Amino acid sequence: MGSALENYVNQVRTLSAAGKYRELADELPESLSLLARNWSILDNVLETLDVQQHTLAVLYVLLAKLHSSAAANPEPMQLIQLMRDFVQRNNVEQLRFAVCAFYETCHLFSEFLVQKNLSVLGIRILSRAIDQIRQMDTQLTPIHADLCLLSLKAKNFNVVLPYLDADITDISTVAAECKTQQQQQNAHTDANNDAKYFLLYYYYGGMIYTAVKNYERALYFYEVCITTPAMAMSHIMLEAYKKFLMVSLIVEGKIAYIPKNTQVIGRFIKPMANHYHDLVNVYANSSSEELRIIILKYSEAFTRDNNMGLAKQVATSLYKRNIQRLTKTFLTLSLTDVASRVQLSGAAEAERYILNMVRYIQPISYIKNQSITLSKQIKSGEIYASINQKDGMVLFKDDPEKYNSPDMFLNVQTNISQVLDLVKQINKMEEEIILNPLYVKKALGSQDDDLTSQHPKTFSG
User: pLDDT tens, position by position, for the chain (461 residues)?
Assistant: First the structure.
């Protein structure tokens, strides 16, 4: 081991033994370039360090390995095992002195796994990293976006969904401090861009919810992404807006409400999403054939944007929406008539669409005039109906829910509790804002300006 690296190890041991973690965390970034230059012997450095006692030093060795991975071409499984051991055995108290470096390590680790097509192996590791560094279950960190990215690449959503299901009430502000620290220490990269990873979390989260067909939640995530205050357009926001339009059609049959203060959408994003607005306009005509033609016309653009699958879901949703409209006009209708009115190929396809609109299908039988007729009872949030398979007739029904069952009462109680918790959270956030010195100063300054404008000074010669 070179003398410079020996000095690095000795310094780490000395400061760690004295418990001077703040001082060590301030000095370690200066050693990053040294570690990266000596990437070929970093394993020797790791052998002299203990993860629990020297968490900060091991973190920077990992960071150097990841920075030099393009040149060093390390064994992927070895690097993955090092990262796994680190998140399982590190000292969290030490780790909090170098949150910036930890975030950057997780970002580079995610990029490395994506490049090596090993995303699935990093999901549990990043899940553990988030649990370690966040201060509450509803806090958003920059690592959340990395976990979402790996889950998307691996098409494995079991681990990430509980994180997405938790409504965010706090955002880690350490990244802003990281930027200041990096400027002071002349760090070579800023890997902790708050806005970037905030937008990516909601964009990737929307894609994950879209993949599992939870369109309502996906729509919310895309909405947060595109309505985030911004002075200029982000490419992330543009891609989220395209998906927002398509998911809006699936959920509401039209463009979902967008707050008027989102000027970036009107100025920059809309002109760059003309194909998608054409799709929205055709959808409003309720013609499945016209919609099929417009999707075929812009298939190249949709494919390029990786939205062709979503476009097909939009087409499917129009068939279903047209079937829903029939329930408001007819009590009974043959499957052939359903197919004709919603522009499907035939009775079999119409039956398949109707059955796909259900939560459950329960075969029943009853005796009438000495003959047995099989019927399928259909219940869902979309339609309530039964299909008589003997004569191919559909009987549309009203919603059978009487809102007087124990399950419904429990559901109402749960919703009330959630609303009350939300009110408490809003009141807490309002109090924090009102007591914030910057807000008070700005509010008082605005009042002074108002008083000045109401009582202008006059000067007499």
Answer: 557 888 888 989 999 999 999 999 999 998 888 888 888 888 888 999 999 999 999 999 999 999 998 888 889 999 999 999 999 999 999 999 999 899 999 999 999 999 999 999 999 999 999 999 999 999 999 999 999 999 999 999 999 999 999 989 888 876 555 654 554 444 444 444 778 999 999 999 999 999 999 999 999 999 999 998 888 888 999 999 999 999 999 999 999 988 877 777 877 888 899 999 999 999 999 999 999 999 999 999 999 999 999 999 999 999 999 998 998 888 899 999 999 999 999 989 998 988 887 544 443 333 333 333 344 444 445 788 888 888 889 888 887 777 888 988 899 999 999 899 889 988 988 998 899 888 888 888 766 555 556 555 554 44
Give the single-character DSSP code of 1: -
Helix (H/G/I), strand (E/B), else coil: 158 = coil
Pairing of strands 139-140, 170-171: parallel
| DSSP code at position 257 | P
The 10 Å CB-count burial string (b at 16+, else e) for 310-348 is: bbebbbebbbbbbbeebbeeeeebebebbbebbbbeebe
Could you tell me if 335 and 350 are in contact, meaning their C-beta atoms sit under 8 angstroms apart? yes
d(CA 368, CA 330): 24
List helix spans (H) across 155-230. 161-165, 174-185, 194-211, 215-226
| CA dihedral angle for residue 309, residue 313, residue 315, residue 317, rounded to 10 degrees | -170
- Which alpha helices (H) appear in 134-186, and where do they start and end? 143-154, 161-165, 174-185
Angle at 47 between CA 41 and CA 50, to 5 degrees: 135
CB 100 within 8 A of CB 175: yes
Long-range contacts for 334-342 (Cβ within 8 Å, ≥24 apart)?
334/391, 334/392, 334/393, 334/394, 335/387, 335/392, 335/393, 335/394, 336/392, 338/394, 342/288
Please check whether residue 24 is in contact with residue 56, taking contact to mean a CB–CB distance below 8 angstroms: yes
pTM of the model: 0.85
Neighbours of 363 (CB within 10 A): 9
Distance CA 145, CA 240 (A): 14
